[in-house]
Input
Amino acid sequence: MEKLIQRVQQADSLLCVGLDPIGADDQVLARLHEVIDQTAPYAAAFKPNLAFFLSRPDGVNLLRIVVDRVPNGIPVILDGKFGDISNTAEHYARFAYEVVGADAVTVNPYMGDDAIVPFAQPGKMVFVLAKTSNKPTHSLQDVALTRGGYLSDLAAGVVKELDEQHHNIGLVVGATNPEALARVRQACPDQWFLVPGIGAQGGDLASTLKAGLRPDGSGLLINSSRAIWQAVDAGAAARELQQQINSYRPSVVNA
Output
């Protein structure tokens, strides 16, 4: 958490650069290095997506190279959406933190705190799925509860309670439903949110910031993957998005 806050302040950025490498194996490493080097000045964090690496023959080694390439001081969030019983989760945590060298992970909370707590280790951070950016036909997250609210709200409440104990657990809340984002922010006023869905998935940046920023103008990591990876100049794309985010922050805070 401290590393993230320091980086956000140092870079004046809420931008998370997603690394979802596509393309031929012999070209991907060079492009990964290029994207990291060009976007690092504007990045509050990097988020490699585990699936895009494991689908390659030497994916784990490639992932470790990528993590080593990220400059010191910039957190790396391993997007693995882990979610299994505690003894299995402990091994996933060892993989993420000791083998890969990540600073944080994403976790699926379907199995409850059993799947979350093993990742909430000192010096690390966990982002737990609450309301994701996809729009499935049958969404468990949108199941209404008899006591009011939705299953995603229940997940956020569980995570809030865990964070009060561990102080390093945030939420994944997508940008494609600003109303849900605002609802989760109201329920969890202090936690950090990792926010996918801006750009290719249709999330609106202004609405997202209005719904999710904390009163201090922080508390969100706005992820961008495809828009930066596919840009001719990744650095320029990252700088532009960082500046767009920062242009909204004062107006939202002062509203």
About this structure: The first strand starts at residue 15 and ends at 19. The radius of gyration is 17 Å. The mean pLDDT is 91. The chain is about 45% helix and 15% strand.
